[in-house]
Amino acid sequence: MANLSKEAKIEMLKKLIEIRRFEEKTVQLYQTAKIWGYLHPSIGQEAIAVGACSAITGDDYIVSTHRGHGHCIAKGANLNLMMAELLGKATGYCKGRGGSMHIADTELKMLGANGIVGGGIPISVGAGFSCKMDGNGKVAICFFGDGASNNGVFHESLNMASVFKLPVIYICENNLYAISMCSRESVACKNVGDRASSYGMPGYIIDGNDLIEVYETVKRAADDARKGNGPSLIEAKTYRWGGHHPNDPGAYKDKEEADYYKKEKDPVANFKKKLMADGIITDKDIDKFEDEIKKRIDGSVKFAEESPEPELDRFLEEVKQI
Amino acid sequence: MREIEYREAIREAVIEEMDSDEKVFLIGEDIGVYGGAFRAYKGLIDKYGPERVVNTPISEAAIVGAGIGAALTGYRPIAEVMFIDFTTLAMDQIVNQAAKIRYMTADRLNVPLVIRTQGGAGRGVAAQHSQSLEAWFYHIPGLKVVMPATSYDVKGLLKTAIRDSNPVMFIEHKMIYLNKGPVPEEEYTIPFGKADIKREGEDVTIFAYSNMVFKSLEAAEELQKDGISCEVIDPRTLVPLDIEAIISSVKKTGRLVVVSEACRRGSVAADISAMVTEEAFDWLDAPIKIVAGLNTPIPYNSTLEQASIPHAADIVKAVKEIVKK
Hints:
The complex is a heterodimer of chains A (322) and B (325).
Chain A: H1 6-31, H2 46-54, E1 61-63, H3 69-74, H4 79-86, H5 120-134, E2 140-145, H6 152-163, E3 168-174, E4 177-178, E5 181-182, H7 183-186, E6 203-207, H8 211-226, E7 232-237, H9 255-264, H10 267-277, H11 283-306, H12 312-319
Parallel strand pairs in A: 1-2, 2-3, 3-7, 6-7
Antiparallel strand pairs in A: 4-5
Helix pairs in contact in A: 1-2, 1-10, 1-11, 2-8, 4-11, 5-6
Chain B: E1 3-5, H1 6-20, E2 24-28, H2 44-48, E3 53-55, H3 60-72, E4 76-81, H4 91-104, E5 114-119, H5 134-138, E6 144-146, H6 151-163, E7 168-173, E8 180-182, E9 196-199, E10 204-207, H7 212-225, E11 230-234, E12 237-239, H8 243-253, E13 256-263, H9 268-280, E14 289-293, H10 302-308, H11 312-322
Parallel strand pairs in B: 2-3, 2-4, 4-5, 5-7, 6-7, 10-11, 10-13, 13-14
Antiparallel strand pairs in B: 1-8, 6-12, 9-11
Helix pairs in contact in B: 1-6, 3-4, 7-11, 8-9
């Protein structure tokens, strides 16, 4: 595992657990109608968010998706502000106006989750132009799914990023399903990663549930981009544990396949096992981390529940300016 | 005062802003050596280089998206969509992204982006290159909509648009590019939300914007011969709209004709009409008349094309229907 200190690996494990438990909590809250509208948990896909965000710096940008809580957390988002946003409170990241799909934070260089499939892909081209013009080696990661890779903007954006050699890392989280459409049936190529050659950029096809493989691949693509070699496409193969959202039972999914991924390819459980096998942590450490994280997540729910609602009068005044 | 072409006024505005703010850059199709489809950017790539005059493939969604992404990360791009008819290809980026990002993120992110485009009929370029689609953008909260008619207006308003930290749909008109008009040498800007009385009058208010301003002024000249004094008011910006100036004018004249090149159905004209009815009913001495384009795709044949959009004669006729002298 190139260049990762013990401390770094432990931090990455904590982030994996944090995302997993945060998402589980939001599902609970959604099922009790404390969170409403749409919620798209990223359970099962945590290694991509953590591996990728760990491979870049605080000055680099990310553009996210509707399934973006993991990206936000991996980039350093504040759980209290996130939870308050999901509960629509005035103390949320977006003062309750955005909800789950529109969380953003300029300080974290988090250019927004997005409610439109592929909506962030063209935006990442702009972030790429910015990084190139700034000339200080910054890069942008663009997360998107297998479904988005079939959308017109994917073509326009990767072509443009390549033509202008923009420092963007395109990461396709192929979790096999775009709502109910299986990517094996919707993507004309064998792999989304094969599309890279159409855009004259390197393509990587990796196990998205292997945190270290994600980290190393993104690091390599980022280094390439920083040197001025332009964008890359990484297809990180993973699996969406839940349905598209908590009210979708996922009847279209194959049960055997689902069981396989949950038992054999759980990114959180597997990284725990790995660090234990390497003697970096023990069972007791894991319990301690889980405990700390549970406290913080419960704390974020408390913070959110005790937070005020946005003021209606103020909203009605502000609307006059739009 | 010197008189310059509308497109030259655009070019001057762009140069002034690019010279004073290194974060301003241009992105669009055929804006390099070609100088832009209507030559508004002639010579700019030589002056600023390809880094600041980014000549792109045909990719409207990516062009606008790139503008948004750069705007989110410290730059002030001017993205060009060559024909407003092609904004259809970038609609998600314009409507779901640019217009909404500031609001959805409660000001954490904002989009200082100008989308320059042009529309309008009269060039014989037929249905897919001649539309007036401002109503679409007028209807989307979060977008400002600017439609300058004169060289003076386009320069001052474009500078304001570039300095605005919100997304602006800057809609020019293809028939105006070569019109000359007075433009001062000294620097100036024009604020949004400030209508301009292009001609003062007493008997009727004619509300018109973009190319219809000229048809209205022509009509006003004609009507003067019959002793009818027309006030022509040009809002210059549809969002924000200077509704006070319009109401003020209507309270003075008691009569309103709203002119729109865009077809009548779902037009900005219809909304203006409704607003004035709500706010100034007691001052109206006659029903409001709307003179608008026909509800049709614009034909290729010249006679049919001309019949599809309003002309001075149509405006004269409408005025005479409500001003009895």
